[in-house]
Amino acid sequence: MPEQPLALTLLGMVVVGTPLALVGLLGGTSVLDRRLGERATATAVALVTSLALLATVGVFVLMLGWDTRHVVLNLGEWVHLDGEGPTYHFAVKFVFDRLSVPFVALTLVLCGTIGAFANRYMHRERGYNRFFFLYSLFLAGMLYASLAGTIETLFAGWELVGLSSALLVGFFHERPAPVANGLRVWTVYRVADAALLLAAVVLHHSSGGGDLDQLTGYREVAGVSPLELPSWPFGSCALPAGQALLVGLLLLVAAAGKSALVPFSGWLPRAMEGPTPSSAVFYGALSVHLGAYLLLRVSPVLEASLPLAVVVVVLGLTTALFAALAGSVQTDIKSALSFASLTQVGLIVAEIGLGLRYVALVHLLGHACLRTLQFLRAPTLLQDFQKLENAIGDRLPRPATSWVAALPAAGRVWLYRFALERGYLDAALDRVVVGPFVRVFRWWDGLEQRATASLAGEKSSQEEPPVPVVEVEHAR
Amino acid sequence: MQSTDSPSTDSGPDGRSRLRHAIDHAAHYLPAQGPINVFIHHNTLHAFEHLPFDDAVRQGTTKFGCQPYLSEERYRGEVARGRIRFDDLRDVLAEDLGGRAGDSLVGLATRADLRLAMLEHPVWAGSIAELLWYIAEADALTRVRAGVSAAARGRLLTETRRWVMRDLRAGRSRPAWAAALLAKFGVSRIEGWKEAMWEAVALEALWCVCRDSVRGLPPPPPAPPPARHRDLLLAVAAFDPDLGVHEVLIPLCAAFLDQGMSHWPLPERERGLYQAFLTLRRRGGPAAGWLRGLQREAARLQDEEVSPFDCILESLAALGVAEAEWDEYLSGALLPLRGWAGMIHQVEERGDRVPHPVPKGSLVEFVAVRLLLDRLAAAHAARAEVGYNGPLTGLRDELRARLADAVSTPEQRAFPVFQLAQALGWSPVELHALTPGEWALLVGEVEAFSEVERRRVFHLAYERRFTAQVLDGLALHARQKPADRPAFQVVTCIDEREESFRRHLEEAAPACETFGAAGFFGVAMYYRGSGDAHFVPLCPIVIRPTHWVEERALAASSEQNGHRARARRALGATAHQFHVGTRTFALGALLTAGVGVLATVPLVARVLFPRLAARVRRWLGRFVDGNGHTELRLDGFSVEEMTDIAERLLRDVGLTTTFAPLVVVLGHGSHSLNNPHESAYNCGACGGAVGEANARAIAQMLNDPRIRQTLVARGLAIPADTVFVGGVHNTCNETVKFADVQRVPASHQGRFDECRAAIEVALARNAHERARRFDSAPLSLSLDGARQHVAARAEDLAQMRPELGHATNAACVVGRRERTRGLYLDRRAFLVSYDPTRDTADAAVLARILGAVVPVCAGIALEYYFSHVDSAGYGCGTKLPHNITAMLGVMDGPASDLRTGLPWQMVEIHEPLRLLFVIEATEAAVRAVLARDEALAGLFRNGWVRLAILGPEAEEVREYRGGEFVVYQPQAAHLPRADSSLDWYRGWRDHLDFAEIASPTGS
Predict the structure, then answer these.
(1) Which of A133, B390, B761, B786 makes an SS bond possible with B508, Cβ 3.0 to 4.6 Å?
(2) DSSP string, B777-824
(3) What is the mean pLDDT of residues A48-61?
(4) Among the listed residues A278, A258, A261, A239, the one whose alpha carbon sits nearest the alpha carbon of residue A312
């Protein structure tokens, strides 16, 4: 195989390196208590996003020019065990291909725009530095997750996205509701992350490495030009059907958590606690698509296992229907938009399940752009409606929900409540997952307390540990 | 629920009417803010307006848990930077205490000295754990606190040393702690103790004396336990049942009030909140644990046709709330979601202001639903969180019994005395000699000057400095007036934002004259512009207009306008379809996948290049906007009515002679993007709308020959060569748009062009002066740069502060412009034109001016005051997480109470002061007005706004204090001078002192 041109590697390094530099800059100055001013922060953000975007475009142009469809940036193997059995390695690797390049470009365009927006929006806010530090974490996480060539790299980016998202939901931590909702988002993300981690373990167990190539079918073959090699979306999965199903299901759970698919949908509207730009870019546009992106990335796996594909389609359609229903009764603009987002994300997932990969990609890109614009304009809704009313010359018509009228009255009320309570999904998760989980751990905790008490020779009538008291003001 | 048998005692018509009364009473405390698209400024504490201001803010603290004044730290910061002067603090304190100031307190200090020391040195207050830590770990007992004078410190050390050496060591009259103290420091080497050691000994002795002496005092009475079950549960079990209740109530209220946000309205909304809720809840569906009983209860309430009133009575009885505490308990139940409850109340009362009104009695239904949920939540929490299985009626007694007494410990009460003793140089030996009775007196005196009291005094000093500034300015300012017939005259709104505009206009065109009148100019009407869908009221909220006015396209252009209107309609319908479509299933997929990527164009353009994007949008808009000439149809008004309006305006502002050839009347408004609170920046006198049509209408009336003729008969002769032109001043992007310019006669064209040019200059300078307050605008901006800057703010989606609104309001001057012309008032004063020399003998003009202006200005000032002193409680907090709900208001994030009041970004730079009215009139005239208008007199008497008068003849100023007009002695000898406004403000961001601007016409 011919050497990959150096220019491509360098540009790739720029895309991967600049966000990390931004994290280091914003985080480092904060840690040293030498915070950057607003202007310096804005300049740094603009510089990094435009540099990275230019580099991405450069990569794209060069890939076209050299007719390369798969550029790998290998930062080395961090663990490599050669044994008698299968080799085991742990690599940090980034891949530029027909899937990741558009998604990275989208991420950079939206993040760059939102960065400029937030700079003015957050002006004089006490948490200005914190916001932009979390923003830089998010940006880095998004890029690493979308460029990831191994499941470990993916996991690192995935975690950064999750962490920064949860902290941004709880941005206004002086009120109880954002903190509670941030915690909820964080909890759901934990479940998704656990699934992703399990998938990584299974993958390593079966093949000794976490390279996504095994799932996506890209293999380097000596003497064959890169053009001939099957790259996304034409790869095929190397795993046997059984393992493909297992890994695929675990990845599906991970994607469902991240993209708020049923039954995890409850966190999405709750995430609208942060400042408007973070809601817009993170939950409206980018992070909510990350699950769908993961499924796109591993789409050859879906091909390898029909049952998996069916599950994906069913889950996507269910989510879309549910979100459309729940969205129709929402009375605040951010919740309405978040369910509108979810409707489309569900459809995108279904498209992926059906194997319509390019359709899904185009749908994803278009949806992210449009929804970001709508989120950013959410506060201007009243003026917009006023303008529309003036143009039409009358009150705006309520969108027809004629199919509702066709239902019997009792069913209508039932369905309305189902929609208003968001499908009871949160309550169900609380009961089925959270409750047993907490009980089990409390039981273990009690056991441990008793054990330590007896070891310490104290009386067994140990008092209960004090419950942390959270002062809750009038919920506003 | 356990209480299925309805309680017999309270039901029946009698109980119901008492209940209705109690709910009506509780409703008074709810915010009076209506739908947010019509923002009316009002006194946030309107419910307490009958009380003196200081009492009212304390009531507000009790009732709403909100701050009465700024924090002590903020005031101390103002002292540190010289905004509050120490002398003012002392004077205010002496005035406040009156005869009690000099009383000696147990021979140690006078009351005034003690209080001054408490103002000067922060007095610690906090939890016992924090205090004990502080004493054990910090240097409280080793170093005399910072800020104490060397004399006081020296005295403390010397006296203690003497006491220890002579008495304690010898064991004479030795207090219990002395032995341990001496042992700790090593009494054997006492002669060798260094100064630092003596300092520690003195402090420790002082602390021991204070602690032990306070220990013997009777404890202060404990605060009464809270009435609500929720508050008790929170205090006892750290469990907040409101969280669950609100999770049900907030979506319900939003769905019930929704004015068109959701695509699917609440089923049975027309039957009212209560029935809709019961219908929704009577059928199954999984529910959280505490809600399990609700389904059966809902079915029972509906099947037995229990009315909302009876439901409330049942709940109150079940919760064990006796009738005597209904008032308190019900307001306690309404206030946690006061935004939503208030909005239900507003929409129910003023159904005419929303497209989808709600039935009468909705607030009662809200209470019924709320108490039903409260009852279930309390019952569940009692079992699950408290382990209480008795009847619900007894829950509160049980919780109160478990409630730990929140009485402060002796240490907490002693520590302030310990701190003050250092500041005032009281030695331990003096304090040790005090009897328990004297100690009780001393501690009582310290506790009487509580934190709130200290803040009140700080606030008085804070206001006093500003008052002096205003009164000095007015007393020392030399009158300025154009000598001859003015070249043109401009009438603007009284708005304090127009102060700088008028000043710059007068600086740019010294031959002009300006006036201020309430910005609806007396024309109260429902108005519909040629491109508007609905009529909107353009007048103060207290007036219900009786006239409908429409703007119509003139015949010549009507055909083309017809096409454009149709095009607009088609475009609007498409845009709406698109907006709705993106939120749906199939159409959404088609649109997002098909054209979604195109959204990057407006997205990037509008965020990165807001002004360019705005220009492109306007250019595109030209193709569909009605461009032809239009006219106002004032047919609804009779000539008589229009003459009344015209006469009133002219007499109010004192423009009855010396008419200039050109008189421009400017309404005002503010346009910005991404701003749910946009209406709050508009003209308050026009009910939160733009005053463009009012200015246009009054100009049209004043040009009308029929009206001029009638005016002559009333002794008001407008010269034939005087022309009136209406227009509007956009206070955000600093532009002025004139109406009906084609009607300006050719003879006046030249003059009109001159006037226009002067206005353009004034606008640029005004933009420049405004820009100094924006942190994001460099101080080095040029005039053009400033104008571009403010224009960009208006078009920027990301801009949270398109303009600063009324943030600088602090005073209101009612009088002739010559008294303020050439005085740099820093955009801080509403300017109301009034000529006392042309008023009737009984001050009828003043009476009607004050009757209209005082409530409006007071409402603005007080709303800004409260939204600033407690942004989260009285205001609506920061705008960043705001989320438009039900088309009526904003929430914080996805589910919170509906937030009322002003956002922090609007009030950030505001100085919370009570508005100071300075009226140019005789004392007799003002007294006559106040005697006739009790509502007005009450506002001044109770100190919600402050009052001073400026003698029409002499430069004498009198302050209204405690019912008397006291002569004010100016504190300064002369005012600072500057050649122009620009010279005075350049380089400064903060509020500025008032200065004399040397105008070419002046002196």
Answers:
(1) B761
(2) S-TT--HHHHHHHHHHHHH-TT-S-S--TTTT--EEEEE-GGGTTTEE
(3) 95
(4) A261
Give the tokens for residue B78. Answer: 């103002």
A406 touching chain B per CB within 8 A: no
- pLDDT tens by residue, B560-594: 777 778 888 888 888 888 888 888 888 888 888 88
Instruction: Identify the residue whose tokens are 């993106």.
Output: B582
* CA pair distance A29, A43, nearest whole angstrom: 15
Examine the pLDDT at A476 and tell me if it is beyond 60.
no
Q: Which two tokens stand for residue A243?
A: 């393992």
ipTM: 0.92
pLDDT at A1: 41
Residue B896 with chain A: CB contacts under 8 Å: 177, 475-476
Q: How far apart are CA B71 and CA B87, in angstroms?
A: 20
Closest residue of chain A to B579, computed from CA coordinates: A374
Q: In the predicted model, what is the mean pLDDT of residues A62-87?
A: 78
> CB distance from A387 to chain B under 8 Å?
yes
Per-residue pLDDT tens for B720-768?
A: 999 999 999 999 999 999 999 999 999 999 999 999 999 999 999 999 9
Kindly report, residue by residue over B794-835, the tens digit of the pLDDT. Answer: 999 999 999 999 999 999 999 999 999 999 999 999 999 999
User: Measured between alpha carbons, how far is A320 from A327 in angstroms, rounded to an integer?
Assistant: 10
pLDDT digits (tens, 9 = 90+) for A401-453: 667 777 888 888 999 999 999 999 988 888 888 889 899 999 999 999 999 99
Contact (CB<8Å) B260/A369: no
Q: A402 at the B interface (CB within 8 A)?
A: no
What DSSP letter does each residue of B33-97 carry, written as one string? ---TTS-----TTGGGTTS-HHHHHHHHHHHH---SS--HHHHHHHHHTTSS-HHHHHHHHHHHH
Q: Please determine, for residue B1, whether its predicted confidence score (pLDDT) is greater than 50.
A: no
- Which among B37, B261, B879 is the nearest to A336, CB-wise? B261
pLDDT value at position A225? Answer: 53
Does residue B621 have a pLDDT over 90?
A: no
Q: What is the mean pLDDT of residues B880-904?
A: 94
Ordered DSSP codes for B233-256? HHHHH---HHHHHHHHHHHHHHHH
Please tell me which residue of chain A has the smallest CA distance to B886: A331
**Residue A463 C-alpha, separation from nearest chain B C-alpha, in angstroms:** 16
CB-nearest to A470 from B238, B281, B573 is B238
Residue A272 in contact with partner chain B when CB distance is under 8 A:
yes
Least confident of A157-166, B159-168, B240-249, B500-509: B159-168
- Chain A: nearest CA to B143, how far in angstroms? 29
A327 close to B (CB below 8 A):
yes
Subunit contact B596:A367, Cβ cutoff 8 A: yes
Q: Best of B884, B887, B909 to disrupt the A interface by mutation (most A CBs within 10 Å)?
A: B884
The beta-carbon neighbor of B582 closest among A374, A385, A398 is A374
Tell if the CB–CB gap between B592 and A421 is shorter than 8 Å.
Answer: no
Nearest-CB residue to A330 (from B242, B262, B531): B262
**What is the Cα–Cα distance from A428 to A422, expressed in whole angstroms?**
11
- Give burial (CB, 10 Å; 0-12/13-18/19+) of B294: buried
For residue B263, which residues of chain A lie inside 8 Å, CB to CB? 327-329, 398-399, 401
Largest separation between any pair of C-alpha atoms in chain A: 82
Q: Give mean pLDDT, residues B107-115.
A: 92
Cβ pair B756, B487 in contact under 8 A? no
Rounded CA separation B334/B324 (Å): 17
Closest by Cβ to B599, choosing from A172, A370, A386: A370
From chain A, the residues in CB contact with B608 under 8 A are 113, 116
Residues 6+ apart with CB under 8 A from A126: none
